[in-house]
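Quick one: structure tokens for this chain, please?
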Amino acid sequence: MVKLRLKRFGKKREVSYRIIAIHDTSRRDGRPLEELGYYNPRTNETRLNVPAIVQRLKQGAMPTETVRSILRKAQVFEQVNAP
């Protein structure tokens, strides 16, 4: 199964994350299938590749709880359910 989850990168105490599509059996910082966005919790900056995320969700990818809340704030789920 493919999951949408966060991949950690950056220095100690200056962490930021990439939103990636990856197999659920892979490790957290393993090689992703596709990088879909960026999230910085310190500045609350978020950059998303919305068409690619919508395509992955339509293919059946399951987001983790944290990624789900990020996508909900960016109103991505409305685009998935749109006809």
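The helical segments are 50-58, 65-73, 77-81.
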